[in-house]
């Protein structure tokens, strides 16, 4: 069964707006990672947040982690057309095995 | 510094044939992972290998599927006697350590007719 579940399944926003997507998971984790996948391509790592961290930033990305609620959020600020992609959260239950959710498809309209 | 290289990118097989997918990890990476992605779904873990060793194959079907990562050459995911349900994108990833981020290839898309 999937460990991570993203919400919403799909998101359509105007260029310049912020995009927020959430990830909920079921069991304790070592870390949680977010990946981006452009259509027909491989996954690209965006950010990793460890279980003892609450917030992390990378450029226009902000990730939060609430281990008490078993949830994480990814915020993309000032979105661009190039941000159009699917975004996946992946939880690391043990050292090496990642469990991916079904993803959030983000469409940024020009 | 080349990324993870997978080939072929697209593969068409008839039911009952064999599919062989290859993955060359990034330079300096000795940890290789195979994941499968069905349409509109996330990736599902199949197998984790280090050079000449299968560490965890818990996500791989017991029959028809096998994986290897020899001392020399790429990692191979082999699917024997393919069925239509094997149609999917197969992604290989590598990492320098078993923890942390994974570096993914562009995937091999298998279509079984």
Notes on the protein architecture:
The complex is a heterodimer of chains A (110) and B (113). Helices cover 0% and strands 56% of the residues of chain A. Chain A has strands at residues 5-7, 10-14, 19-24, 31-37, 43-50, 55-58, 61-66, 71-76, 85-92, 98-100, 104-109. In chain A, strands 2, 4, 5, 9, 10 and 11 form a 6-stranded mixed beta sheet that branches. In chain A, strands 1-3-8-7-6 form a 5-stranded antiparallel beta sheet, with no helix packed on it. With 113 residues, chain B is mainly β. Chain B contains no helices and 11 strands. Chain B has strands spanning 5-7, 10-13, 19-24, 31-37, 43-50, 53-56, 65-68, 75-79, 88-95, 103-104, 108-112. In chain B, a hairpin with a 5-residue loop joins strand 4 (31-37) and strand 5. The termini of chain B are far apart. The mean pLDDT of chain B is 94. The chains are: A mainly beta (110), B mainly beta (113). The A-B interface holds A 2, 4, 30-31, 33, 35, 41-45, 48, 88, 90, 92, 95-103 and B 4, 31, 33, 35, 40-45, 48, 55-56, 91, 93, 95, 98-107.
What secondary-structure arrangement, pairings included, does this model have?
The complex is a heterodimer of chains A (110) and B (113).
Chain A: E1 5-7, E2 10-14, E3 19-24, E4 31-37, E5 43-50, E6 55-58, E7 61-66, E8 71-76, E9 85-92, E10 98-100, E11 104-109
Chain B: E1 5-7, E2 10-13, E3 19-24, E4 31-37, E5 43-50, E6 53-56, E7 65-68, E8 75-79, E9 88-95, E10 103-104, E11 108-112
Parallel strand pairs in B: 2-11
Antiparallel strand pairs in B: 1-3, 3-8, 4-5, 4-9, 5-6, 7-8, 9-10, 9-11
